[in-house]
Amino acid sequence: MTAAEETGVVAGGSGSLDAEAVTQALVDRLFESTIGALELLSVYLGWRLGLYEILAQSGPTGVEEFAAQAGIDSRYAQEWLEQQAVAGILDVASGAEAPRDRRFVLPAAHAEVLAVPDSLNHVAPFAPMIVGIAGALPEVVDAYRSGGGVPYERYGPDFRAGQGAINRPAFVHELRDWLAATGEVHDRLSGDPPARVADVGCGQGYSSVAVARAYPKVFVDGIDLDEASIADAKQVAADADVSDRVVFSIQDATGLSQMGPYDLVWIFEALHDMARPVEALRQARQALKPEGSVIVADERVAETFTAPGDATERMMYGWSVVHCLPASRTEEPSAGLGTVLRASTMASLADEAGFSNLEVLPIENDFFRFYRLIP
């Protein structure tokens, strides 16, 4: 049953619910969305100011004590703590009437979501991503009018940090299993002589570092066009003590064939952002060793357009209209793929780039679909 059928609304039908009920349903939905947006902005404050880490370490905490530990004004501390408690994010350990006598607790189950960067449940980075998008929205409006694009760097350090952090847990915990789903790739990365890997669109480098940690023999070249992301990536590699095997450079994917040959070219959630994806895939194919592989991971959206869509489809279109599509149109000509890269489109891109076949890998994941492109 579709959402329209569930609500009794059928386009052009005489059996529709009355217009007032339909209007009220959308009013209610946007009202709840507004609450959610405001609460996400409060999560941003906690993320940016390090408030959740303090709460995770301190146990039940009063306003003055918390403000002193966090280095913030006590009146702001009180308002934020109360808001977090009203939102159900914090518990109140003491029901004292006087605000300054209340003690607030971050439940352990919530700490995992908000203050444990490597947890697969760590979704707090969505907050800085939204803040970064909000900062660029005036330029997005202009792009809609002009048909131009909005450069990635205009979304600022908040978006960059959020995007790196939101995928970091999956790289830490799941990347090796993803690659192991193709036995040949796993065996080559594990064997001798040491394999070479290109991580295209590496961002802050968490994926490149994860490959190097999962396979201690490999050498990884991480490339990205964003200068700030590459600077971050170099620090991530240094902190992980893999700088001897992981090298980052500001490089367009269309120059990849000059950097090879590679045993694996890996493109994680970056192809849909590229202005010239076919050229990038063609370069990846040309950069391979004879037995090399190209693996692309992109969004697990529906096979076909269906409206209304499920939660994943809604989220991916949400990112697309305000970020991915505008960012991809900074260069012209641009394929203008947007975030919603369907499997059929991926197959067409691979075919145009000269690959003989495309295999969807048997990897269970709620958000990503994995493709092996066969030369």
Written description of the protein model:
The chain is α/β, with parallel strands linked by helices and 375 residues long. It folds into two domains: 19-115, Winged helix-like DNA-binding domain superfamily/Winged helix DNA-binding domain (Arc Repressor Mutant, subunit A, Orthogonal Bundle), CATH 1.10.10.10; 126-374, Rossmann fold (3-Layer(aba) Sandwich), CATH 3.40.50. It is built from 14 helices and ten strands. The strands form two sheets. The chain has a seven-stranded mixed beta sheet, sandwiched between helices. Strands 1-3-2 form a three-stranded antiparallel beta sheet. A hairpin with a 7-residue loop joins strand 9 (357-360) and strand 10. Helix 8 (156-180) runs parallel beside helix 10 (206-214). It is globular and about 70 Å long. Residues 1-15 have low confidence and may be disordered.
